[in-house]
Specification:
With 106 residues, the protein is of the alpha+beta class. The chain has 2 helices and 6 strands. Bound molecules: zinc ion.
Length: 106
């Protein structure tokens, strides 16, 4: 999917439509961005980063490399950042960003 380099979008700071530069942020995954979810806490426990009681289902889960997206969605939403050219504030549109395997900004 092709995305233009600059877009005219609404800036909540300027309260008007301004020209905004598009940049794709590196996808850090759910474990980095959502550290308090149950799954990422289990992952941290398995890695030995946190202490806790019990094995939290570690034995029944199998190897960590088999936890990959099986029978699930195969594409992630792109993490796009929009920088306003007037006030240089950065906005996100994570909910509205496109879902595609390959995204090129041109
Ligand atoms: Zn602005």
């Amino acid at each position: 999917m092709k995305i233009p380099k600059e877009m005219k979008r609404y800036c909540p700071n300027c309260k008007t439509h301004t020209l905004q530069k598009v940049k794709q942020e590196k996808n850090r995954g759910k474990n980095k961005t959502h550290t308090m979810t149950k799954f990422s806490q289990i992952r941290m426990k398995l890695r030995g980063l946190t202490a806790g009681l019990g094995n939290k289902g570690a034995r029944s889960r199998g190897a960590m490399n088999s936890w990959k997206r099986y029978n699930k969605k195969h594409s992630k939403r792109a993490d796009l950042r929009f920088t306003c050219t007037q006030c240089s504030k950065i906005w996100t549109a994570s909910g509205k960003s496109p879902r595609s395997k390959k995204i090129t900004i041109e």
